[in-house]
Amino acid sequence: MTTKQHSHYLPFLAQNYNILLFSNKSYREYESIKSFFAGAFQRNMEDAELENVNITLMANKIDIILLDATDDKAQANRFYNAVSEYSHRIVVISIINEPIESDVVDLIKVSDNIVFDTFTSEELKDKFVQVLSVFYTIISIGRREVNLKSGSSDVNVLGNFLDSYEGSSLFIVDELIELNQRLKAGELSKELLAEIGKKVLEISEIFSKHTLLAGVSPVFKGLGEFLIDLDFSTLKPSGLKGFDYLSEIINDCNKNLMDMFVDRIFQDIYIFEYSLKNNIEFMKNTLFLDETEDNSELDFF
Description:
The chain has 301 residues and is an alpha/beta fold. Helix content is 58%, strand content 8%. Helix 8 runs antiparallel to helix 11 (242-262) and helix 9 (190-207) packs antiparallel against helix 10. The radius of gyration is 22 Å and the shape is elongated.
């Protein structure tokens, strides 16, 4: 059953962004979400770091900053001003004490968002989802406008079909994100693979409904049936790396579903089909790989 929380979208939204925590202390909640981002860093709030803040931001291509204002509000304000002078595009989420004290009001006003120092991991995830959802929306609108202005014939031909199945595809993405999180967390069971397989079969069913996409339907169908029927007893420890590739395949499927059904952005369907086939074959070869075998002839992309 899918949760009602939105934070399980975080891995999908965060994967291309870099975050930075400015703080002199460690936050377990921050450590728990670092792996979702392309890059995650922490720097202290000493004067030496303040003097080199531009170098830190530029070298690490920072998109979002978590700014700790719980100990030294004046220093936090200095860091905020330095970041703001460097770039107004960087989003700053300030960590403040609860209850709110008067000397932090100005920082609250200028910060893009705030989180109280009593935050939980789930609350921090939700904050990042709020910020990254805005990023995603802006980029999606821009991409869609460019696509529409280019007069894509695929958009026109597929319009009614995409409208009909947008809701179904979003539900599948929602489920797959949560299932993939369990897979990435190390859960390996016949039940989990069967759940993933059933979702993949639903994708196959949707793609079978339109002639332009029907060629990809059997590829999804084959993958879904493979996952449902997979016998764990046939796998060796050396082949378990293949489940990492399954996770990447799920990420790609989610991205393509979102691009197609939500943003109406298309890649060549034959390239998509070829890539999917190749990645599935690579995954299967890895799953059943003997330690003495070489899998280098195929590329995962």
